[in-house]
Fold these 4 entries.
Entry 1:
Amino acid sequence: MIAPFVKVQREDFELQTEIDRLTDGRRDIGAVVTFSGLCRDEGGTLGALELEHYPGMAEAEIDRIAKLAIERFELLGLTAIHRYGKIAPGENIVLVIAAAPHRQAAFDGANFVMDFLKTSAPFWKKEHGKDGTQGSWVSAKDADDAARAKWAGNK
Amino acid sequence: MTKLVYFAWVRERIGKAEEEISLPADVVTVGDLLSHLKGLGEEYEAALQFPQAIRVAINMEHAEHDELIAGAREIGLFPPMTGG
């Protein structure tokens, strides 16, 4: 089984660089799906998001999820990068790239990783207002748990 | 001694990121740990007011509230995750 490429970092990432890292020299990949999550400005009110993580556990948990996806969807490559620290509107937060022989497995793999990452990787978001006020911690959503649960029954 | 680490609003309410504490012998499960900590002072009570909302990791792996904490080197306490 191939090993996923997993990073938890403060720095930004570059989509094309990461796609190249996954596909360079390969002739067996027929589909690459990339998902990137960006920081929204929430209608112009948000100044920044502060991403806190549990060092060590965050990497281990994403790695565990990534390996599940590779096995389940028979992926040929998987990259998952999650940033931490202060992130301004318009900036990247998370990147998932899934490579497979065909598109459905690549779409499903990326989707699966995001659904599990959101509910079980130890990251927390705090909102900071544009006016400099320190806002509240973002609450977990039931919809995210439901999205994760849908993977339980079907293969 | 057991190392406890706190994150997000649990960390803010308790007022520290980590600490080493010795646990009484009758603290056996994750649930016991949460009720024990809750009795340690106002800041702990504020953080752990609704224990069912607290997620726990033993040695960096998710743990249910009925799990045993025997042999834990590090226990993490935090709110439900909101990354991604």
Entry 2:
Amino acid sequence: MLTAPVTLHAQAQPATEEIEPVEAIIDIQLVTSPGGIEAWLVQDNSIPFMAIEMWFDGGGSLDRPGARGATNLMMALLEEGTGDLDSQEFAAAQEGLAASFGFDTYRDEVVVSAEVLTQNRDEALALLRGAIVEPSFDEGALERVRQQVISGIEYDLTDPDTISGRTFNALAYGDHPYATSLDGTVESVAGLTRDDIVAAHRSALVRDRVSVGVAGDITPEELGALLDELLGDLPGSDLPLPEQAEFMAPGGIEVVEFPVPQSSVLFGNEGITRTDDDFFPYFVMNQILGAGGYRSRLNQEVREERGLTYGISTWTGLSDYIAMHQGAFSSSNDLVAEAIDVVLAEWEDLSENGVTAEELEAAQRYMTGAYPLRFSGNGSIAGTLAAMQADDMPIDYINTRNERVMAVTLEDIQRVAERVIDPETLQFVVVGRPDGLEPSN
Amino acid sequence: MFRRLGLTLGLAFTPLAVQATGEISDFTLDNGLQVVVVEDHRSPSVTHMIWYRAGAADELPGQGGIAHLLEHLMFNGTDDMAPGEFSETVEANGGSDNAFTSWDYTAYHQTVAADRLGLMMQMEADRMRDLVLVPEEVETEISVVLEERAQRTDGSPGALFNEQMSAAYYRNHPYGQPIIGWRHEIRELTIEMLQDWYDLHYHPNNAIVVVAGDVTPEEVRALAEEHYGPIPANPDTDDQESRVRPAEPPQNALRRVIYEDPRVANPYVSMLFPVDETLAYDLRSQATLELLRAVLSDSDFTSVFARELQIENEVSLFAAAYYSSTNLDNRPFTLLNMPIPGRSLEQAEADILGVVEDFLEEGIDQAAFDRIQFQWQASQIYAQDDAAGQARSLGTALTTGYSVEDWENWLEVTASITTDEVMEMARALFAQDPAVIGHLTRPAPETEEEEVSQ
């Protein structure tokens, strides 16, 4: 098809951890089905299709003891057949309807998404209902998908970015589910039984923990009936959600020796939750420090001034059971020590001096101006609506968000910087063969 | 509402009522700048892209990577703008901007509120002619690009392997060189070479502006006349008709590439089949090749490779075909097979060629072909959701030898292609031997004897 081939981008894409609503340029309707299931809807009839996204709270962190990876494997098996349809018949039916389905597993939620044409919406969603409510979990498909998942885990073991993430989590989270990969290990996935998969399905896809976002060509009435058909037969939850996590990393630099020419670096410490009074100052501070593309301090100092990396960014990681402030970059093995020194110097400067009035004003202008532009496309709107509900954000949050960004003062940022920006506790994980940094494990 | 539908689902074809896509307008300024507008009034934003008909395959020998390095340096300032001011201004207006380079083009784009389009054009027109190259900035940017190469290519066995496969395939054509360049050549690029590259290629008669979003063609024309209109055409820069690259000699010797890397998790084999040179620029032939690729590998479950190799015979973890019709010159048709653990790459070669042989005998499953045709027609509906994506697709087409009319006719042509045409293409393609067969694999483990003797 006439689509773009592989190309090179000049600048790294900024991390987009933060999910933000728009100003009232989109009209969100709260729809409650006859059976009591809620959804947020942005109706737009200009293109004859709709997108729906369903976030089920719990996610990979619900894996039962000894069955790490079960939720992830279960979600990969949902498209492998339902009722009388085996995996190929299911795929043929879906392709014949030109519908696209997604089944994804994250730490705190499993996500089911779909884009379906108006002209065959009922047929497409009937097929999706079968996948969610009555998956077959056929033994043959289980073995095949298990092998695919294991080969993916093996691939990840050779990927420096994945290694840095897993090493960081192992250092940071003790025995919380966040400490280990939701994919599981080669051994744990090899040991999963069909019963584990059935139990994971029972725990993850429950009607009382779902947040639904919808955008596109559908009326509230049509959506209400559809929600009951799609989700009404799911059971209620039977497992408690995870406990709060505690950040346990000691700070300093951890090196994982790995034979690559460039070191992959992940760093971070505990951040601030969305419900905290300091959240907005923290959010704006991070924009100035490392989230804002070109103009961020870290991009200026590490890339533009010194050419030490192709891209560096920081983000506010808002997991359900801990808030993290993290960042990442890659630098050649002979430059990475210098790059880490520059990052630490920026940490010191921010914690001591805060930011300037010019920086604050520029960040506010960017954040409030960019806000309405993020909401184009039914798929991204549906996803955002689901995420906002999963994060317990009020439906009118959109009208106050820009005001709260604009209300942040220099003093607010100074206070927040002193609270979370501390070079002593900042934990670095370096994967590679960095010059001048001794492996400590 | 749903449940009574049951098993007839796979047969539930209905004719697809495709609505008109967002209106597309196309005009050319007196100085040769082509402008294309995609209207989409659903959200108050606009994507502005400028595409130059100059990419890595247009570089002079020894200057590999210069198209991409200049792309980086286009953000470093003009006589009117300080280094970095371009991106700072976009950000200050709440927008985002970026750029990318391929073998056939270099493109720059911004997404902003629709009322900032004039500002974007003003800045883009400024840096089309008045870029200021500064030695220290060139030096720093070369470091950044070397880091980029380390991250994208040197850190990835698969990327290093692909680079070697292309280098082995093309013996005369510049597609054999990586877009980012070889490390040793990137290091030697000079400010004079960059200035020459910029002076030769960055002119309105070598560029295409694509604007998609909440604007009208009249507004775009007025703004384009105001900002780009005053820049004179460069008579020394011909249009893309003159972009003649060295032709490939006949592919009559099989080359084998063995790339070993201890970081390889799952070894695989890759085979490059030459595509007839005379098929370049022929819309129907290119669409037929894309359909062949789709029949072989578009679906993880129902396509020929997935069904035979992954699901029924369980000899592959992954198998696929690749082909890209959007290139100025032909690229090869690629088959890839990643066998299950314990199966050799020699067996993997035989496995996938065996499936191809069966396919040539048995032909295409008509129901599967109908599903692909229907999905491609439906993609026209889904594509309307993404005006920026349409801008990118149009720009790619226009810088790789297609016209706006071709782009608009693509689906109609595709819908008229028959299974017989696809099979004829397949027979011609696979009657040849591959030109290159590559193995990406781990080094053999040390022998047991050596281990015992330690």
Entry 3:
Amino acid sequence: MTAADPVDRLLATARGEPVDEPFRVTGVMVQYYYVCERELWFESRNLEIDRENATVVRGTRVDETAYSDKRENLNLGMISLDLLDDGRVVEVKPSSTLTEPAEMQLSYYLWYLDRVADIQRDGVLAHPRERKREPVVLTAERKDKVETAIGGIHEIVSQSSPPPAEEKPFCDSCAYHDFCWC
Amino acid sequence: MDRNYHVFSDGRLERSDDTLRLVPDDGGEKQYIPIENAEAFFLHGQIDFNTRLMSFLNDRTVALHVFGWEDYYSGSVMPKRGQTSGKTVVNQVRAYEDSQHRRQLAAAIVRGSIHNMRTNVVYYNGRDHDLDDIIEELEAAAARVDKELPVDELLGTEATARKAYYRSFNEILPSEFQLSQREYNPPPNEINSLISFGNSLVYANCVSAIRATALDPTISYLHEPGERRYSLSLDLADLFKPVLADRVLFRLVNRNQISDTDFETELGSCLLNESGRKTYTKAFEETLERTVEHPTLNRKVSYQYLMRLEAYKLKKHLLTGEEYDPFQRWW
């Protein structure tokens, strides 16, 4: 028997159906898929990141403090997302650099809600430090893109070793920097 | 985040609001210790503490290393990290069980260890000492290191090299401080006791470095797992002893900063007294804070951080299969 399509396997895992090899994709894995494939592979192995890393500390702080009175955490098994009090899904990021990865992370949440829980919601990408909010809607095009990404993620995390290190402009601020380059 | 604090007095270590306070037993002044930049506390005296302190240290990911009778390392209280990694431990064990893989890692550690011993001898060779024969012996030992050798032979090669290396101490140090022979439990003379004390500090720092990753400190490659204490820490400490402990020893003794008044000598044993330990740890901590330009990280890193990087390198090797290249002093 050939391995099932990654999207089907992910959906079966999320719905709690019996699966030979469960396949889980978290929101942050979708983000890393667009940022750095090596980081995605590390994340898939639960590799501990340097929590004292300045960027991580800043991101955690922004996430914990922004709109704290207006949102509610919703844990859905493999994903955990925040709902605003108007029902939209919000993803908080400290800055608007690397917008596409953040948009795709949010798109994945919307896709997951739609496909797993049959709930249709809109999203909002928030950059509180820049006082910016952008709406994100799950269009047909975004749905396709999410499903392509799931296939791509599956391919990377199935490898027994990570893609080789590749120097990128944001490597310096990455929590895996020293681990990657030592 | 990387300062070590050593507490030599007896007393009580406690949380006081959002910082730490040391209350000495002798009624001396209370001392406040900033926790923000602390990596670990080394307790050399008799210290009381409670669970409130433990939770606080845990939140701030600060370790406690305890030294007991005659300042032997007796254990650590480590922060529970946010994440542990079963996968890391599984891979660690797999590498141990695969005898070829284990030999390869053990050989790498011995190779790095001999290289770092040799660097010390070469440094002193030009300075009024003739150590050519010892350098030759170390090179001969290094040439025997092969990843095909069984682990006990690799251990034997390391021991032979270390024996030759320790002979250089008698040349490097003034005649009133001679090592003659490496002995411990208890150390019979001054140099042996300095080596033992220094090694225990290197060892405890390696424990901290390992615990900052999800590596299991009891699964090791050169030493037998769990043989004594945290055996993975023994593996890594071998690489760092020449760079940290031995250089501090040479410096302090040759500059007369340590003298016979810094020891307590009893029948068959010789140990550093409190003033000796203070002098030593001060110089040791200064060494940990020294920095060196790192060839691949493109920044300066402290000697202390080199131990953390070593744990990262090992973990990376175990998880990704990318080659493990042992720490070899490059400067």
Entry 4:
Amino acid sequence: MSTPTDLAADQLVRLRVNGEPLTAVVEPRTNLADVLREQAGLTGTHTSCHQGWCGACTVLIDGCSARSCLTLAVAATDTEVTTVEGLGEPDGSLTALQEAFVEHFAFQCGFCTPGFLVLATEILDEARAGTTFTRDDLAQRLAANVCRCTGYVGILNAVEAALAAQGTEVRS
Amino acid sequence: MTAQAERPTYVGARIPSRNGARFVRGAGRYVDDIHLPREATLAVLRSPHAHARIVSIDTSRAAALDGVLAVATGAELFERIGPQSYLWDLPGQKVGHGRPLAVEKVRHVGEPVVAVVARDQYVAEDALELIDVVYEPLPPVVDFDAALAEDPVLLHEEWGDNIQVRSAWPVVIPGLPEPPDAGAALDGAHVVVSETFDVARMTATSMETRGIVCDYSPGGPSLTIYSSTQSPHQIRQGLAAMLGLAENQIRVIAPDVGGAFGMKAVVYPEDALAPYFALQLRRPVRFVEQRDESFVASTPSRAQRMQLELGFDAEGHIVGLRSRYLIDLGSAPSTCGAGTGWATGALLCGPYAVPAVDIQASAVVTNKSPLGAFRGFGQPEANFPMERLLDIAARRLSIDPVELRRRNLVPADAFPYTNAAGMLLDSGNYAALLDLAVSRPAYAEALAERDAARAEGRHVGLGIAFYNECTNFGPSGVFPLIGITQGGWDATTVAVEPDGKIRVTISQTPMGQGVETALAQQAADAFGVDLADVTVHFGDTASSHYTGYASGASRAAGIGGSSLLVAAGKAKEKLRAIAAHLLEANEADVDLLPGGFGVPNSGVDPIPLARIAAAAYQGGNLPEGMEPGLEFLGAFDPMALAFSYGVVVALVELDPGTGQVTVRRLIVGHDCGNQLNPAIVENQVIGGVVQGLSTALLEELPYDADGRPLALSLRDYPLPAPTDLPEFDLFHTVTPTPFTLNGAKGVGESGVIAAPAAIVNAIQDALPAGAPEITAIPVRPERILDAFGAQA
């Protein structure tokens, strides 16, 4: 949304999204999710509650998971943002995490899926850096996001399988 | 057809979802992802009052805001948009004005009062703040007692009372024997148990809120509507009537639907407003419901209070059932009417052989948002009282709760079985499933865990509940008798393409159930082709065949799947005839074989589908008089409903200090007939059970004494989290229904029906003896603390 109003002057936002530069002129109140979805056309980042409760809009900002609906676009200036569209391997194939989501039926309607994938990507990154997780730890971390369809069992199984696939098994 | 050609290859296998690669790449396409050139955004000003007269509305400041394109009140639109129709139109049902915006008075917080169209959501919301409405507050009717009081405040003065419709069972049918008298049965019973039960108002909370993007064609009054809906044809039908258009002037497309659960099955005010303004402004108009709006603008469900009475003989057999119950419809019936309330009464006997019933239901209006459908559709509201009261009766009769259920389940040799409420139960072996559940290792472990925990002084309990689920809804011939204005059949188009690949166009709407995957499996098997050679299309009234009831009521696999088999059967007849012609063989000798159609054991290679298709589309070398082409429509109307069924065993632990309930284990036994894809079935059951867990413990839309909703965000409305999960033990039996072509029954609502009763039965078991009976859900921690306190 880049509608000029008399509330405040528009601002220029420069960031990198999935490795590519993005420049947008926005009202100061415009959130990052809207810029990603409507200016960059990256509709994989979904918005559902606009209050930070559901996590459907989760993206990585400089490698850390963040709610893009609660992040003002101007505050994301000069950051590196990764959305679900940026998760694939360079050759276009799916990551092991994405494959695990498909294999373990970790989605039904698919709406919350991008947020969970981004959240789980952060978990996998932490595991590679040495953090260890129990199944309960995973449940705690994934409780940041909401899925209404699956009952979470498939999602937990998929993340656990992806951790195992990268050699960072879940402690019992 | 030979047994070899019909061997199931894909049906019954755990085939991954066809949507996987798209969804994990973020390439799902939901309504809010669709943007059209020159589009404008609709926003709605909603009532802040539960009940108030509208004195005046001044929209001049909003209309003057830069970027605002249109503003309209209910009075201005009353003659321009006709009344909504009702999907459920029970005999004697009263209706509201049915217009999308309030007129003269508002009847619930959140009722649409003024519509604004602006260049985007930000400006539209700015404009809402510039509208001045003067209200004269009226006393709100917030509960059953107020609605049914002597000389009550009336929501709809012309009704004369606050009751929309009443229903009763048994239904006396002229010419048939008088139904047995439940009153006499209860009078003569050995033991009679009675309690009053409450099931809270709750809401679907699909992660994608409702949305509509409406395109306008300048070439005439024609609309293309992208809608997050379960039922594109019903939306088209409803809007055509409200807007005065022909149905063929409206095309409704349901792209990816981000969860629905019954909530997206009805026509909403914004569904009429967006197209209305698109026509007026001659430009596309979009509406995407914001999350705070969803708590007052999307239909919630449940909200029933039931007094239930069961009489037993000395052996524990039920001799009679009496029920008086109320359903809180909110301020005016949605297009779903009192449907869920009706279903509760009709399905109250559940899986039990109840010889006599006396059931009376009243659908009551209050100053809350209008009620609609939600997963389970009246069945959790029936199951919870019944399964709780069976446990209460078991203690009175000194019979084990499992044994008491076993004695009353409809026996396997009694199917098809018509119960005292007039429902025909198609098939099942209920007792076998119950016995299997209690012979699971997980059951023995749960019992041991409970006893060990109790020995340590912990409060752990085990509970059980049985259920059946009404699916494959439903036979069109029956619908007029129960007030449903649509047909219950379904249709599928199957085309063999010119290259021999298969294109299937279903009338069902996928919204996470996996129906497109399961039906692709069926099509691949029907033609003996690779799954990858089948495409499945859906969700577009311009290509999907009309279906009256669309996706809901767990009917996609049984009815949708059967209609696919009808179409495939027609296709195969023609393929066989063309093959016989090309082979110069007798048609009767030709079969579908591996590799194509041919004569078995003839030494001649079968003709591949691609060659038959090439001939069919070239058209010059076909049997005399045959039409070219290979597209076929199959329709299927079931003879009767099909009842899935199952059992849930819950092991819970209570924390007497905090009132927290932890569900440790859930054993879920389930039978939905033939499973097209067991992984999809499992996913549906688990997802439903977890919704049932939160029905038992978390979810509630409360209102204060002034009729103001107390939940307006996900902060106020707790949903289950991964940390709430128990250990699951899920198992299946398979009892195909005789009333579909594929033996499949539905699975969508199974999980949610009995989990609440099983969990509350377990909670009661965990409470000290003498604690008050828990008769209301959700069981929030304060209720547990009360129960411990009352006992001490």
